[in-house]
Amino acid sequence: MNDYRKAFDELSFSADFQERTADLLRNRARELEKERTDMTISKTKKIAVLAAACIALLAVSVSAAYAWLTPAQVAEEHDQPLLAEAFQGPDAIEINETVESGDFSITLLGLVTGRNLDVLNQDLEKDHTYSVLALRRLDGTPLENETFDFSGYTMTPLVAGCSPAAVNNWTLSAFAQGFAKDGVYYYLLDTQSIEMFADRTVYMAFYEGFAPSNDIFTVAEDGTIAFAEDFAGVQALFTLPLDPAKADRAAADAFVESTGMDGWTNERTAPEGDWDIERHETEDGEEIFLRPEDGGTDESH
């Protein structure tokens, strides 16, 4: 030990050795601190990127869980290629508005009007309006063809200033079809063209029940239509963004007059009669036909 100390004492150091050594130690300390900081920043960035990726994946997963079929895809499910093409064309109206009511989320996806778009039920004389609505349960329980009561709900156009008894599915000779896919239930509604009413407020109503009545709807003095305050069923009322330039007031007035049901009162009255329900299973879902019990003309729903 003494020999080691003696050898160390015999070493010669420059005059600035102490200052240079202190500077060296300070510089090394700064480098070590910088390395630790860079390592921390790098780790933080990796964590942030990973978190962002997880959030994006979750968002995509949630979006996919509630992704609707497009109106064109709904038409394709019904083997309606001409209608599917029309839903992708410039005249189609995209809506994608959602109302939550009861246990359901109700989304009106869109509509299109045209002639000879239905390869199964062509009407060479008139334009028709086709509307698509998607329905899902808020608790995530899948809707299925076998368990969903298609006949218990109605999807129908209504027009402000016109009695709901005069302009609806039944007077517009509607044909409705429904099917479930991936837990979502889709309505495809075919009616006579509603564009003749386009210079007025036109609604698409979806509700639990059958033909419009004053138990379900009220009409204000200015003609606007709303659900009755005490109507407790599932309900949604959408305003359709139709092009007023396509309206035909003379044709609309003539249509309303031809129904013979242009009167309306908000006062509750006894029902005029019950409906017989006739169901027809199809490959795509179910079709419903309603007949008044007095044996009147068939009306499709």
If you had to describe this structure to a student in words, what would you say it looks like?
With 301 residues, the protein is of the alpha+beta class. The chain has two domains: 54 residues; 230 residues, no CATH class. Helix content is 27%, strand content 29%. The protein contains five helices and 13 strands. The strands form three sheets. Strands 1, 2, 3, 5, 6, 11, 12 and 13 form an eight-stranded antiparallel sheet that branches. Strands 4-7-10 form a three-stranded antiparallel sheet, with no helix packed on it. Strand 5 and strand 6 form a beta hairpin. Helix 3 runs antiparallel to helix 4.
Short description:
27% of the residues lie in helices and 29% in strands.
Provide keyphrases for this structure.
301 residues; alpha+beta; eight-stranded antiparallel beta sheet; three-stranded antiparallel beta sheet; 5 helices; 27% helix; globular; disordered C terminus
Radius of gyration: 34 Å
Gross morphology: globular
Level of helix content?
A: 25-40%
Which percent band covers the strand fraction?
Answer: 25-35%
Name the average pLDDT: 80
Poorly predicted ranges: 4-9, 40-65, 295-301
Individual helix count:
5
Cα-to-Cα separation, first versus last residue: 108 Å
Query: What characterizes the major β-sheet?
Result: 8 strands, antiparallel
Number of domains: 2
- The total strand number stands at 13
Give the topology string: H per helix, E per strand.
HHHHEEEEEEEEEEHEEE
Determine the structural class based on helices, strands and strand pairing. alpha+beta
